[in-house]
Design goal:
It is a single chain. With 303 residues, the chain is α/β, with parallel strands linked by helices. The protein has 2 domains: 86 residues, 2-Layer Sandwich (TATA-Binding Protein), CATH 3.30.310; 206 residues, Vaccinia Virus protein VP39 (Rossmann fold), CATH 3.40.50.150. The protein is 37% helix and 23% strand. The protein contains 10 helices and 12 strands. The strands form 2 sheets. The chain has a 7-stranded mixed beta sheet with strand order 8-7-6-9-10-12-11, with helices on both faces. Strands 2-3-4-1-5 form a 5-stranded antiparallel beta sheet. Helix 5 runs parallel beside helix 6 and helix 6 packs parallel to helix 7. The radius of gyration is 21 Å and the shape is elongated.
Length: 303
C-alpha cells in the first residue's frame, strides 16, 4: 500500500493550514480525503507543514498528491518522497528503541525472569508482552495519578499487571481481565515473588462481561487495554464513563506495526484501531495524546 510524505519548510504553517481549510473540507481540521480512498494528513510544526499521503493504489496516491499540490499552489513546492508500503514503516527505529530501553531504570530480577519464562513457554506469542520501557511507563503513570482503582484488559503473562500493581497507592487494587488461564498461570508466581499478588484480582472470563458488571459510577483511576483489537472500541466505551475526572485510559498497539497508516490493510483489527484512534482524538470526554512508544500508545485523560 503506497505511502508518501512531504515537508514544506515555512514559518507560516498555520496560515497554510488555514488556507487549506478554506478551500476544502478537512476531517478533524487536519485530514483531506478523496472519494478514491486517497488521504493526506497535515501536521504543523514550528518551521514546516508536514504532509503524509496514503491511498489504496498508486493511481489514488498520485491523485491525492495532485489535489494537495493544487490546493497549496501559493506555498513553496512540496517534494514528495517515493511511495513506500505500510509494511516498511518503522514506528520506532530499532536503534532509537534500543537506546531508549537502555536509558530507563533497569528491570529487576523478577521482571527479567518473567520475560525469560514468557519467551520460553509461549514461543512466538511472547511478542505480545509489553517491553520493559513501556512497563516502566505504566508504573510511572499509575504513581503519578495516585491510582487506587485500576483495570487491565489483556493480562497475557502478567508483565504489565505487575508494573501497574507496583505503582498503586497503599490499599490499591488492580482488576486484571483475561480469557487464557494457561498464560495467566505464568503470571501468578511472579506476582507472588514481586509481592503484589494480593493487589491483583484476576478474572478469567470475557473482559466485556467483567467490565459491564462493574459499578457505573466514575471511580476508576487508571485503565490499560492491551487485548483483542476488535474489542477495543467496546472496552473503551465501558471504561471511559467509569473513569473519575483526571483518570487515565491507556491503549496499547495503536500503530499496529504501522499498518493503521496504510489503507491497504483493511482487516477487522486495522479498521477497529484506525476508527478508534480517530474517535479518541475527537472525543469531548477526554484529552488525548498518542505517543510513538514501541507500537504506539495512546494516553487519554478524563475531563
Amino acid at each position: 500500500m503506497p505511502v508518501s510524505t512531504a515537508r514544506i519548510a515555512t514559518a507560516q504553517a498555520d496560515h497554510l493550514l488555514h488556507l487549506l481549510r478554506s478551500a476544502a473540507p478537512l476531517d478533524g481540521g487536519h485530514r483531506l480525503a478523496r472519494p478514491d480512498g486517497g488521504i493526506c494528513t497535515f501536521a504543523v510544526t514550528a518551521d514546516a507543514l508536514e504532509l503524509t499521503a496514503t491511498a489504496p493504489d498508486a493511481a489514488a496516491l498520485a491523485g491525492i498528491r495532485r489535489t494537495v499540490t493544487r490546493l497549496l499552489a501559493e506555498a513553496p513546492a512540496a517534494e514528495w518522497s517515493g511511495p513506500y508500503d505500510g509494511d516498511d514503516l518503522e514506528t520506532t527505529h530499532p536503534v532509537a528503541a534500543a537506546y531508549a530501553l537502555a536509558h530507563c531504570t533497569p528491570a529487576d530480577p523478577v521482571l527479567h525472569e518473567l520475560e525469560v519464562e514468557t519467551r520460553t513457554r509461549t514461543g512466538g506469542a511472547a511478542r505480545m508482552q509489553v517491553s520493559h520501557d513501556e512497563g516502566a511507563f505504566l508504573t510511572m503513570l499509575t504513581r503519578l495519578v495516585g491510582a487506587r482503582r485500576a483495570v487491565e484488559v489483556g493480562v497475557f503473562t502478567g508483565y504489565s499487571s505487575l508494573c501497574i500493581a507496583r505503582g498503586l497507592a497503599d490499599g490499591g487494587r488492580l482488576l486484571a481481565c483475561d480469557v487464557n488461564e494457561e498464560w495467566a498461570s505464568i503470571a501468578r508466581g511472579h506476582w507472588e515473588r514481586a509481592g503484589v499478588a494480593e493487589r491483583i484480582d484476576l478474572v478469567i472470563a470475557p473482559a466485556l462481561d467483567t467490565l459491564r458488571a462493574l459499578p457505573a459510577e466514575p471511580e476508576l483511576d487508571l485503565a490499560f487495554v492491551d487485548a483483542d483489537k476488535t474489542g477495543y472500541p467496546a472496552y473503551y466505551e465501558e471504561l471511559v464513563p467509569r473513569l473519575r475526572p483526571g483518570g487515565l485510559i491507556v491503549l496499547d498497539n495503536v500503530f499496529l506495526g504501522g499498518r493503521v497508516l496504510d489503507p491497504a490493510f483493511d482487516g477487522p483489527d486495522h479498521r477497529a484501531i484506525r476508527e478508534l484512534n480517530a474517535f479518541v482524538a475527537a472525543d469531548p470526554r477526554v484529552e488525548a495524546v498518542m505517543l510513538p512508544l514501541r507500537d504506539g500508545v495512546t494516553v487519554a485523560r478524563r475531563r
